[in-house]
Every structure is written in C-alpha cells, then in structure tokens.
Amino acid sequence: xxxxxxxxxxFCLQPLAAQQTDSFPASWEGTxxxxxxxxxxxxxVQSVDMSVELHKIDTSLEGRYTFGLIYGSKEQDWRPYELxxxxxxxxxxxxxxxxxxxxxxxxxxxxxxxWFVVQGSRVLCTYEKTGDDTMVFEVVSGxxxxxxxxxxxxxxxxxxxxxxxYPFSVFQRAVLKKQ
Length: 179
What we know:
The protein is mainly beta. The chain has one helix spanning 2-12, and strands spanning 30-40, 43-56, 65-71, 78-87, 92-96, 102-108, 111-118, 121-131, 134-143, 148-150, 153-155, 158-160, 163-165, 170-178. The protein is built from one helix and 14 strands; from the N terminus they run H-E-E-E-E-E-E-E-E-E-E-E-E-E-E.
C-alpha cells in the first residue's frame, strides 16, 4: 500500500510547470500524415490513412490552434476540432469538438493525452512527437465495466486496497510524418 502511495506521489504529483510546455503546441505545428493500424484481440483488423492538422488560428488572441483529425480523406471523415489553452503552464488544454463536447487534455512530459468515456467505452488517446518530423498517435479503448476486482482485504496488519482491472478491446497506432 505504501509503495502505491509513494509511486503516485512521485509520478502523479510532480510539478507540471517543470515541463517544456512553452514549445507546445508551436513546435508541433504542421500537417502530420501516415497509416493508422487498428488491432483487436486477434491481430490487425484494419488500416486507414490518417492525418493530424495542427495550425495556429491567426485570429485567435487566446492561442487557439486547429486540431483536425482526418481518417481516409476530408470527404470521408474530417474532424475539425480546436486546441484551446486552459492553463498551459500546468499542461492543461481542451480539445473542443465544436459540437458542445470539449475534453480536458494534458501535456505530460513528451505526451499529449486525452482520457474519456463515451457510450460505455473508456478511451485513451495519446500523441507524442518523437522527432522533428515524427509523431506517434495511439488509442486504447475498452468497456467501462471492470473485468475483475481483487484485493480489498487485510493480510496480517496491512490493509490491501481494492484493485479493479478493465478490459481492452481495441488498440490503434499510427506513425505520422510531418508533411
């Protein structure tokens, strides 16, 4: 139990201000394209072209950026979202889907993350700029209902916390190159 608390304190509560948030999103600006591979429990089930468009909105005094996701082509599936600064010095942003959905997203170290639940599925999206011209996009998702619950007991004098595990049903990954 103490090990879990120490781990959380060290890695979850470290100051976000120490991050290099001043270069995000400016240093990520551009159009990033590649092939998105989609995996299920039995392996790859589909591949599709995808792009991420990240461009400063010239008229924005707030520091907004376009945050467009394209699957296939703009005619097939274009999601013209916006990236909105909330507290960039703490790594806090919002992805505004421009349809009443706006999701808090976090820059933690080298990764930009968004974790949410939609229609009974937990979804974690990550973006990581791994080089000047390379970005890795990943999505993991699965049902919101836990698979199992263990712990929640006492062993000797130690209280063991309850630990719930959740299933995964889909993993998506694309290595995107700056165009």
